[in-house]
Amino acid sequence: MVSTASAKIGTWRNWGGNVSARPAREVTPASVEELAAAVRAAAEDGLKVKPVGTGHSFTSIAATDGVLIRPQLLTGIRTIDRDAMTVTVEAGTPLKRLNMALAREGLSLTNMGDIMEQTVSGATSTGTHGTGRESASIAAQIKGLELVLADGSVLTCSEKENPDVYAAARIGLGALGVVTAITFAVEPVFLLTAREEPMPLQRVLAEFDELWAENEHFEFYWFPHTRSTNTKRNNRSAGPQRPVGRVAGWFEDEFLSNGVFQAAQWVGRAAPGTVPAIARISSRALSARTYTDIPYKVFTSPRRVRFVEMEYAVPREALADALGELKAMVDRSRLRVSFPVEVRTAPADDIALSTASGRDSAYIAVHMVRGTPYQAYFTAAERIFTAHEGRPHWGKVHTRDAEYLAGVYPRFGEFTALRDRLDPQRLFQNDYLRRVLGA
Asked: Which of these ranges, 175-179, 180-184, 279-283, has the smallest mean pLDDT?
C-alpha cells in the first residue's frame, strides 16, 4: 500500500495547454521504495505507469489513463563528489533549483537549455538541449542513472555498470523505467560573456559556419515576415562579472521579451493581418548588449508567454538550405507567424535516441502562441525538416512514427531491443510511445 497515493483525481494538462489526460490514480512517492511499490501495485492492477514533471513537453509523452507518478517529493541533491566532479540529484528536482544549489557550491553544469522550469528527469528523458560547439544536450552530461524497472527492482547504470542501459536510458522517453536519480558531471563555476546583437538573416546564413566555429555557444532567432535576426554568442570569460543591470534586465527580459511580446501576440491573434508589421517592430525592439555572468544566468531566461512548439534536428550542414526553404514557404503562404524561429546547434553524441546521435546537428524550432491554430504552419515546416532527414525533439509537436524514426536513428533497433528486455509487458507504454517506438 502506497500511503502517498492521491485520492483526488482530476484532469492533467501540460504547460502548453495542447495535451490533457485523466489518470486512474495519481501517486506522489516520498522515496524510491514508495515509487517501486507504486510501480508494482500498478502492474498488479493492470494499469500503465507514467511519471510527469512540470509538463513542459508539447507531446503526449507523459499522458496516461493509468497511474500518474508525480516526483515533486523526490527532490534535492543526494551527494556531491568533488574528486570525481559529479553531483547526484533526485529525479524530481527542478533544473532551476539544481542550478542555484550548484552555484552556491561553486559548481555548474557545462551547458543547459534556455528554460529551467523542468525537472531534471523530464528534461533529460526528452533530450532537452542548449546550443554549443562542443556541448549542448543536458543528457550528454549524465554520468549515471538510477531507475525503477517494470518489476519494481532498482537498477543503476553508468559507463561501467550496465553500460547497455546507460547508452540508451540517458534519453529514455520514459519507456525503460522510472528515473529516480541522475548523476551529472559538473565543473567549477565559470563566467560567460554574452554578446547579443541584431544581424540580417542573409549574413547569418552566409557566415554561419564561421559564427559556429568562432563561438562556444552560438544561436539566433529569425523573425518571420522579416529579413532580420537577433544573434547571441556566449563564450567563457576571465571576468570581471558584469551582469545585466536590474532596471535594464527588467525592461529587456520582462517588459519587452515577456510583457510587450505577450501584448503583441494578443494583437496578432485578434488581427492576423497586423502580424508582419508587428514582426518588423519586434525585430528592431531588442538592441545590442553585452554582459558577463555565471552560466545559468546567461544560458536561461524567463518564458512567461505560453506557446506550442515543434523542433527538428537536421544535419548541421543542411541548416542554411532548410531555413531558406522555411522562409520561402512562409513568404509565399498566407500564414501569419508572430513567434520568432529559434536556431541552435549540438555536436554529435553517443546516446541512442539523442537528436544529435552520431551527427553534428542544427536545431530549428517553430512556435505559435497558445490558442492560435498551428497545424498548417507546423505541417508545412515538418515537410521541410523531414526532407532533410530531420529528427523531431521528443517533447515537441511532431507526427513521425516508428517506421520513419528507425530510418533516421541508426541505433533505433538497439533501443527497442533493450525496451523489449526491460519492459516486455509494456508497463510504461502509452499512445505516444506506441506511435514513436512501435507496439
From this structure: 279-283
Positive or negative CA dihedral for 96, 395, 182, 191? negative
Q: Write out the three cell numbers for 34.
A: 514508495
DSSP 240: -
**Which residue(s) pair with 10 in the sheet?**
none
Residue type present at position 22: R
Among residues 315, 292, 356, which one has the least CA distance to residue 134? Answer: 356
What is the arrangement of strands in the sheet containing 178-185, beginning at the earlier edge strand? 77-81, 86-90, 178-185, 142-148, 154-158
- pLDDT score recorded for residue 273: 72
Quick check: 406 and 412 in contact, CB under 8 A? yes
Using the predicted structure, report yes or no on whether residue 251 has a pLDDT greater than 50.
no
Average of per-residue pLDDT values in the chain: 91
HSE of 44, CA atoms in CB hemisphere, 13 A:
8
Could you tell me the sign of the dihedral formed by the alpha carbons of 104, 110, 115, 120, in that order? negative
**Terminus-to-terminus CA distance in the chain, angstroms?**
31
The candidate with the shortest Cα–Cα distance to 16, out of 91, 113, 118, 135, is: 118
* Per-position DSSP letters for 53-87, written without gaps between them: -S---SSSTT--SSEEEP-TTS-SEEEEETTTTEE
Q: Please state, in angstroms and rounded to a whole number, the distance separating the CA atoms of residues 262 and 304.
A: 8
Q: Is the pTM of this model over 0.70?
A: yes
CA nearest 383: which of 316, 436, 437, 333? 333
Would you say the C-alpha torsion 102, 106, 111, 113 has a positive or negative sign? positive
Mean pLDDT value across residues 240-246:
84
CA dihedral 42, 47, 48, 49 (to 10 degrees): -30
| Cβ proximity of 357 and 411 under 8 Å | yes
Distance CA 190, CA 234 (A): 12
> Using 50, 70 and 90 to split pLDDT, how confident is the model at 319?
very high
- The neighbouring-strand residues paired with 232 are 196, 219
Nearest to 110 by CA among 290, 271, 236: 236
SS3 41: helix
Q: Report the alpha-carbon distance of residue 108 to residue 87 in Å, rounded.
A: 10
Query: What's the CA gap between 3 and 329, in Å, rounded?
Result: 55
CA-based nearest residue to 58, from 113, 10, 116, 128: 128
- The span from the CA of 215 to the CA of 116, in Å, is 23
- Whether 71 contacts 119, CB under 8 Å: yes
Please, what sign has the CA dihedral across residues 102, 106, 107, 111? Answer: positive
Q: Is the peptide bond before 240 cis (omega within 30 degrees of 0)?
A: yes
